[in-house]
TrEMBL record:
<dbReference type="Pfam" id="PF00183">
    <property type="entry name" value="HSP90"/>
</dbReference>
<dbReference type="InterPro" id="IPR020568">
    <property type="entry name" value="Ribosomal_Su5_D2-typ_SF"/>
</dbReference>
<comment type="function">
    <text>Molecular chaperone. Has ATPase activity.</text>
</comment>
<comment type="subunit">
    <text>Homodimer.</text>
</comment>
<dbReference type="InterPro" id="IPR020575">
    <property type="entry name" value="Hsp90_N"/>
</dbReference>
<dbReference type="InterPro" id="IPR036890">
    <property type="entry name" value="HATPase_C_sf"/>
</dbReference>
<feature type="domain" description="Histidine kinase/HSP90-like ATPase">
    <location>
        <begin position="25"/>
        <end position="175"/>
    </location>
</feature>
<dbReference type="InterPro" id="IPR003594">
    <property type="entry name" value="HATPase_dom"/>
</dbReference>
<keyword id="KW-0143">Chaperone</keyword>
<keyword id="KW-0346">Stress response</keyword>
<feature type="region of interest" description="A; substrate-binding">
    <location>
        <begin position="1"/>
        <end position="327"/>
    </location>
</feature>
<dbReference type="Pfam" id="PF13589">
    <property type="entry name" value="HATPase_c_3"/>
</dbReference>
<dbReference type="InterPro" id="IPR037196">
    <property type="entry name" value="HSP90_C"/>
</dbReference>
<dbReference type="InterPro" id="IPR001404">
    <property type="entry name" value="Hsp90_fam"/>
</dbReference>
<protein>
    <recommendedName>
        <fullName>Chaperone protein HtpG</fullName>
    </recommendedName>
</protein>
<keyword id="KW-0067">ATP-binding</keyword>
<keyword id="KW-0963">Cytoplasm</keyword>
Length: 545
């Protein structure tokens, strides 16, 4: 009673895409099949609790390679398929919305395949033929489904006693031609299979065995981040971090998030003690590892973390992200954005907490990553100003310790209208500025900006808590009381010809020569007009100092 049927149009499209895209992540087929096996066991386990037709079992997933036959077989004792289910679930893309998804696939590059999984059909990326032998507890007979993944599939009766599914892949021949090599034989090698299972399916809840060793499961099964905080030792966390992110040192900080409610996810976030070797170069890739219900999806998801916190490493596991191809990408994006925003708030509050309660620790962090935070404020026209401004610290003319903007305002003189800052190559260079004299006399605190990004950041900020920033190197710095001003005006009038002569002598080198209101000990100083300071102009013109 062999029945041959055509795949539904959508399925044919997806199959075509699978077999014809030169797809670099072929290896994800194993992840997909293991994840299906795990889902099927979930279903059986769940039903066995309520339905007496469904017996429970010792659940497991087994993987067997046969080099001679070039087959790879994935066996599970999950729920299995009835005949209708075989036709329905493997002949069509059952879920609604899948059509829209495939249309998106057509327009976009195929990278999203690797990100969100495409399920069963990915087997055809590596196989010429696939056979599914299966038995459902709801059917008295077993069945075999078979297809070359082009346009048709066949379903036949098949004698199978045990409940569950066995999927056999007939691997494609290796290709060696001018266009390069493509190997499929590697999926028959135990070490390769082991490493793929470790990489993608380590945290699948059921044991995965390779047929060579039925004693010891390849996967670790419970992900660290799904365990409760109290059950995880610091050692385990540090070990996990070092293993997962290839670091030799323990992390500077670990943040464990477990969020439930409208949005459900677990996350382990780490701040490395030292930035990655390429942290400041373009080759550095930010991102968090993304899992869905313990199944690895993506190594560096960039949407989960903003550039300003790009030093953070970690994993995010959410049950709200489905591996279904049926889900629309937009939906995925929305969930990811919500998770990202929750993570961002958490990192901010942890850092803030350090800043307020463990200043030494915060300064260790700040000295390592301050440039990222400052760029974070500068980027996107200050979009993240509110988020980040209270994490910024500067040293000042009055203090060798870092202070925050808030602390600056808390202790500023009552008659002081602005937040003063000065830029220079080093702290000493700034302290030597001639303008410093009068500020010192008045006891005004001046933020010392020594990094290139500092002034760009301040310019983008404009104000802090509505108090404007003011460069002591700008021409309109006005610190003098009225009497002194009148005095200077008078002197300027009586010395007009001298000032004009000086301007003439200096020519185009200066815009104007005038008597200064700001000098204390130094006889002369250069100031810049509105806008950029001299230091910033130097940066922009790239003039070596
Ligand atoms: P998804 O897993 O996203 O639903 P897949 O293409 O991976 O989509 O699988 C299609 C359907 O086939 C699944 O929804 C499931 O009903 C069924 N299925 C796949 N693999 C198995 C299996 N090992 N045991 C039982 N059912 C399976
Ligand atoms: Mg699936």
């Amino acid at each position: 009673m062999s029945k041959t049927q055509a795949f539904k149009t959508e399925s044919q499209k997806l199959l075509h895409l699978m077999t014809h895209s030169i797809y670099t992540q072929k290896e994800i087929f194993l992840r997909e099949l293991i994840s299906n096996a795990s889902d099927a066991i979930d279903k059986r386990h769940f039903l066995s609790l309520t339905d007496e037709k469904v017996p429970s079992d010792t659940y497991q997933i087994k993987i067997t390679a046969d080099k001679e036959k070039r087959t790879l077989t994935i066996t599970d004792n999950g729920i299995g398929f009835t005949e209708e289910e075989l036709i329905q679930n493997l002949g069509t893309i059952a879920q609604s919305g899948s059509k829209a998804f495939i249309e998106k696939l057509d327009q976009n590059d195929t990278n999203i395949i690797g990100q969100f999984g495409v399920g069963f059909y990915s087997a055809f990326m590596v196989s010429d033929k696939v056979e599914v032998r299966t038995r459902s507890p709801f059917s008295p007979e077993g069945f075999i489904w078979s297809s070359d993944g082009v346009s048709e599939f066949t379903v036949d009766l098949f004698e199978k006693d045990s409940i569950g599914t066995e999927i056999t892949l007939y691997l494609k021949e290796d290709i060696e031609d001018e266009e390069g090599n493509e190997s499929f034989s590697e999926y028959l090698e135990t070490y390769e299979l082991r490493s793929l299972i470790k990489k993608y399916s380590d945290y699948v809840r059921y044991p995965i065995y390779l047929s060579e060793d039925l004693e010891k499961p390849v996967n670790q099964m419970t992900p660290l981040w799904q365990r409760s905080k109290a059950d995880i030792t610091e050692e385990a966390l540090n070990g996990f971090y070092k293993h997962q992110f290839n670091d030799f040192e323990d992390p500077m900080k670990v943040i464990h998030m477990s969020v439930e409610g409208m949005l459900t996810f677990n996350s382990l976030l780490f701040i490395p003690k030292k930035p990655a070797y390429n942290f400041y170069s373009e080759t550095y890739e930010k991102g968090l590892q993304l899992y869905s219900k313990g199944v690895f999806i993506q190594d560096k998801n960039k949407d989960l973390i903003g550039d300003h916190f790009k030093f953070v490493k970690g994993v995010v596991d959410s049950s709200d992200l489905s591996l279904n191809i049926s889900r629309e990408l937009l939906q995925q994006d929305r969930q990811l954005k919500k998770i990202a925003s929750s993570i961002e708030k958490k990192i901010k509050s942890e850092l803030q907490n350090w800043l307020e309660n463990d200043r030494d620790k915060y300064i260790e962090f700040y000295d390592t990553y301050k440039t990222s935070l400052k760029y974070g404020i500068y980027q996107n026209f200050g979009l993240h100003k509110e988020l980040l401004q209270d994490l910024i610290l500067f040293k000042t003319n009055l203090s060798d310790d870092y202070i925050s903007f808030k602390e600056y305002l808390d202790r500023k003189k009552t008659d002081q209208k602005d937040i003063y800052y000065a830029t220079g190559k080093s702290k000493q260079a700034i302290l030597n500025l001639p303008q410093m004299g009068i500020l010192k006399e008045k006891g005004f605190e001046v933020l010392l900006l020594t990094e290139e990004v500092d002034e760009f950041m301040i310019q983008v900020m404009g104000t802090y808590n509505e108090v404007p920033f003011k460069s002591i190197q700008s021409a309109d710095l006005d610190l003098v009381d009225e009497d002194k001003k009148k005095d200077i005006e008078k002197k300027s009038e009586s010395n007009k010809s001298l000032l004009e002569a000086m301007k003439e002598a200096l020519g185009d080198k200066v815009k104007e020569v005038r008597l200064s209101k700001r000098l204390k000990d130094a006889p002369v100083c250069l100031v810049s007009g509105e806008g950029l300071s001299l230091e910033m102009e130097k940066v922009l013109k790239n003039v070596p100092n």
